[in-house]
Structures are given as structure tokens and as C-alpha cells.
Amino acid sequence: MPNLRFLRGYNDAVVLGLARSGAVTRVDLAERSGLTPQAVSKVVGRLIADGLLAETGTRNVGVGKPRTLLKLVADSRLALGAQVERDELRVVLTDLAGGVLDRAVAPLPADFDPGTFVAELTRLVDKMRNDRLLGVGIGFVGPLDHRTGVIHDATALRKWHDVPLREVAEQQLGLPVVVDKDTNTAILAEAWRSGEELRNAVLVLVGTGLGVGLLLDGQVYRGARTNAGEFGHTTIQLDGPRCVCGRTGCVEAVHNAAARAGDLAAATSVVGTAVADLVQLLDVDHVVLAGRAVLAAPAEYLAGVRAKLPTAEWLPVDVGITPLADDVVAAGAAMLVLSEFYGRPR
Fold it and tell me: Using N-to-C axis directions, what is the helix angle for 165-173 and 114-127, rounded to 10°?
């Protein structure tokens, strides 16, 4: 029975993942999923009964009976996602397709403690509670443990040492909670939105900190301790400024020093140089830029990164700005919840 339950969950997730891309037929689902027509029929019947799929018209295919189209009932299940910056909390409500339906933003005091954060999170979540809510995802500053939901030593937040955030938040909210690094939820949002088109990519998040989310061979890569992506704390200048992490010359510290001095060209050049190293190291073909600094000067950051990337024709790299703008981390945190239930396993 446990194996059967897993199989059903996997097959359901595969079908729903394909339905997120638009109206499909049962034949489409069988061809694209690798499931047998009989298995697809059972899955579709179960999902229709659960209100997750609905039949919507037909498609003519020449000779033979028109095929029934199926669509995702996006608002049948909802999730909340939170982005935690060092000075701000953003919570969004998303549907099963990943569309943002509502949002709320609140400032956080300097060096806030866990109690203050959970109280503010509860206040914003309570504004958007409903009976279709699956849970709450939180995209937090690392380092942290995604598996246990424990924040170990969040950079530049002194009061966050080994805080069991998932456990505390679940007790306070009365809802399932998942916790991940903000960069991981951001790249998950891009993967959820793009589907199989995005398989090897990095999302560079430039906010109050600087980090990267990694999508390698279609999987969010978290590393052995779920802390991959501490991109901002790699050394780019040996004699550079001291970083909040305690080291000197980190990408984040050098970038922030240039930004504070008003030297945007230098700041974007630092990011571009670091991203070029990342592209060479991982051989990714997509770079997505995000975060408040990028959104404040998108053309400059795009130019700064593109100027440093390899120029060989056989090494094309697509560089763009996230279309989810300020919501990318929070929306990705909500999609992390959705993926626990209805994501397409890769």
C-alpha cells in the first residue's frame, strides 16, 4: 500500500504538472508523461473528482471522435509564500498555477528576533486565510536546513541561531509550513513558471544580501546540508572590504560597497564577473536576475552581466530579469508548498 500511494501521488503530480502548461487531452497526457492511456484515465478521473481538473470543450483531430480538453482548476487549491528580507516581510497568495492573487508587505525592525517575526507573519497570513489553503512556505536568509526547517546562523541576523522556524511557525499558524533559502524558492518559481524549458539555470538575487539559486538538470540543487548557493560569500577581491559573514572581499561586500558609494557601474561589474565565473563552473545556459537592487536598475545589471559572459557562439547564455519582480521569492515559497502536493517530480 505505501508504494501504491506513492505511485498515485507521483502520477497525479506528473499529470497536473503537464496541465499547468494549458489545456490538454488525455492522449496528450499519455504521450507526454509516458503513462499508459489506462493509467492516465484513472488519474484524470481522480483529479476531476477532487476538483483539480475540469473538462472544457473538445479538439477536432481530423478523422474520428473529437478529443475532450482538460484544464487545471487553478483556484481549487491555494498556498501562501513569504519572503524574509533583513528589513521587510512580504507574503503572497498563489493559486495552483503559480499565479499571484494577493499580497501584503510589512517592515521588519532592525535585527528582528524570531518572536517578532512569527507575530508579524501570523498577522499577514491571517489576512489571507481561506478553506482552500494548503500551507505556508517561507523563503529565509541562510544558512539554514531545508529538511528540518531550522535556521542555523542567518547572515546579519544575530538572534537567529539554531531557531526551529518550521516547528514554531506551524504551532502558531496551525498550518503546514516549509522553509527554504530565499534563493532556492526564487529559482523554484522560475522553474515552476517555465516548466521543462528551464533545466540548467542560476537565479542571482541581489537584495539586502546577494545569493544564487541553482537549477541543475531540472532539479533545485541544495547541496549536502541544503546550503548551496552562498554565492555572495565567495571571495572576489583578496584585499576587499570586510563582509558581514566575517570574511573579507566577498562578492556581497564588494558589490554593496560600490553600491553605497553610488558607483553603479562598479557594482554591476562585480556581479557580472562573479556570474561569469559561475557560468563557467556549472555550464548553465540561463541566468535570471532578481532582487531589489536589480529591479531598481534592470538595464544596468543586464548590461553588466552580459558584458562579462563568454562570447563563444557555442556557449550561448540567456540572461533576463525575473517577470515575477518583487514577488519572486515569496511566490516561489508558495510554489514550494504546492510542489509538496502537486509539483511535477523531475
Answer: 40
- 514550494: which residue's cell? 336
| Residue 36 exposed, middle or buried by CB count within 10 Å (0-12, 13-18, 19+) | exposed
Closest CA to 206 of 143, 270, 261, 124: 270
pLDDT, tens only, 18-30: 888 788 899 999 9
Higher pLDDT, 180 or 6: 180
Nearest to 202 by CA among 150, 256, 130, 279: 279
How far, in Å, CA of 73 to CA of 18, rounded? 13
Contact by Cβ (8 Å): 166, 152: no
d(CA 130, CA 114): 25
| C-alpha to C-alpha distance for 14 and 36, rounded to whole angstroms | 13
Helix 2-19 / helix 328-342 crossing angle, nearest 10 deg = 130
Instruction: Tell me the per-residue pLDDT of 265-274, one tens digit each, with 9 for 90 and over.
Output: 999 999 999 9
Question: For residues 319 and 302, is the Cβ–Cβ distance under 8 A?
Answer: yes
Strand 24-25 relative to strand 67-72, pairing: antiparallel
